[in-house]
From TrEMBL:
Active site: C82 (proton donor), C82, C214 (proton acceptor)
Source superkingdom: Bacteria
One MF annotation (Gene Ontology) recorded for this entry: diaminopimelate epimerase activity
Biological function: Catalyzes the stereoinversion of LL-2,6-diaminopimelate (L,L-DAP) to meso-diaminopimelate (meso-DAP), a precursor of L-lysine and an essential component of the bacterial peptidoglycan.
SUPFAM superfamilies: Diaminopimelate epimerase-like (SSF54506)
Family indicated by similarity: Belongs to the diaminopimelate epimerase family.
Presence of keyword Ion transport: no
Site residues (Could be important to modulate the pK values of the two catalytic cysteine residues), renumbered to this chain: H155, E205
Name listed for the protein in its UniProt record: Diaminopimelate epimerase
Keyword terms of this UniProt record: Amino-acid biosynthesis, Cytoplasm, Isomerase, Lysine biosynthesis
Compartments (UniProt record): Cytoplasm
Protein's pathway: Amino-acid biosynthesis; L-lysine biosynthesis via DAP pathway; DL-2,6-diaminopimelate from LL-2,6-diaminopimelate: step 1/1
Gene: dapF
EC id: 5.1.1.7
Provenance organism: Nannocystis pusilla
Length: 280
């Protein structure tokens, strides 16, 4: 069955986006099941469209929302949240309305689209109220201390000084992702505080591997940095990811984190999504 999609990206974290705001709950559930089974093939960068995951835009679940975002990782798993993906969904849904709420599996998220360039392939800057982080305490994995933080989805953050965060994310990410202390697996962050107050961040994503950016990972890292006294409240903090910078801010302890960054539709197309039973 052919499905129309937009290829979207935020800082190079890229997704197939299927807008099915017209679908009934049963049709949406069946589509998500098919996409989960087909995700490794669809997201394959040589044999498929290519992407870190898939975003399904469904009808809103709550009265104030414009739509719902459902996320499927590259490996077919279904995470609760995706920061870069949500910026892309807000951009795709926004049209003339630049303030909107999108429902997610981690609750409703207010979004503001700025510097909107309309067209078949719109782009813009999107600010999202990502909600408050949940600080879950320290974990020790392989002799290293990680801060466990939930942004709706799970993160394990280690701060390094003289080590290379990219090498650590590539080398240690897979084992930390599957450490038994994280029964749902975890996204894994290696972060370095820079002299100018910014944070350099590499992320090994659950269900994807290394990505060029992770919005929830950046927010979780800021929360851990503030908790450890490494970053300030009520000031913009730049988190530098391989794909570019995200601007983050938490105004008070325990409060919401605001994330601002780019989103873009790269191209649109149609792709065959096989029935779930024939993709095993
Ligand atoms: N890239 C995303 C996070 C996507 C979900 C993640 N892989 C998970 O399994 O939790 C982001 O920008 O937040």
């Amino acid at each position: 069955m052919l499905e129309r999609f937009a290829k979207v990206e935020g800082l190079g974290n890229d997704f197939l986006l299927l807008d099915r705001r017209d679908a009934s709950p049963a049709v949406l559930d069946a589509l998500v099941a098919r996409l989960r089974a087909a995700a490794p093939a669809l997201c394959d960068r040589r044999l498929g469209v290519g992407g870190d995951g898939i975003l399904v835009v469904g009808p809103p679940r709550t009265a104030e929302a414009a739509a719902t975002m459902i996320v499927v990782n590259h490996d077919g798993s279904r995470p609760e949240m995706c920061g870069n993906g949500l910026r892309c969904v807000a951009l795709a849904v926004a049209g003339a309305v630049h303030q909107l709420v999108i429902d997610t599996d981690a609750g409703p998220k207010p979004c503001a689209v700025r510097e909107f360039h309309p067209g078949t392939c719109p782009s813009g800057q999107v600010a999202i109220d990502m909600g408050p982080p949940d600080l879950l305490g320290p974990r020790r994995v392989g002799g290293r201390a990680f801060a466990a933080v939930s942004m709706g989805n799970p993160h394990a953050i280690a701060f390094v000084r003289d080590e290379d965060p990219e090498a650590l994310a590539r080398g240690d990410g897979p084992a930390v992702e599957r450490d038994p202390q994280f029964p749902d697996r975890t996204n894994v962050e290696f972060a370095r505080l820079e002299a100018d107050g910014s944070i350099t961040l590499w992320v090994w994503e659950r269900g994807c591997g290394i990505t060029s950016a992770c919005g929830t990972g950046a927010c979780a890292t800021l929360a851990a940095a503030i908790a450890e006294g490494l970053a300030p409240h009520a000031r913009d903090v730049v988190v530098r990811l391989p794909g570019g910078p995200l601007m983050l801010r938490q105004d008070r302890a325990g409060g919401s984190i605001t994330m601002t960054g780019p989103a873009r539709v790269a191209f649109v197309g149609e792709v065959e999504v096989p029935a779930a039973s024939s993709t095993a």
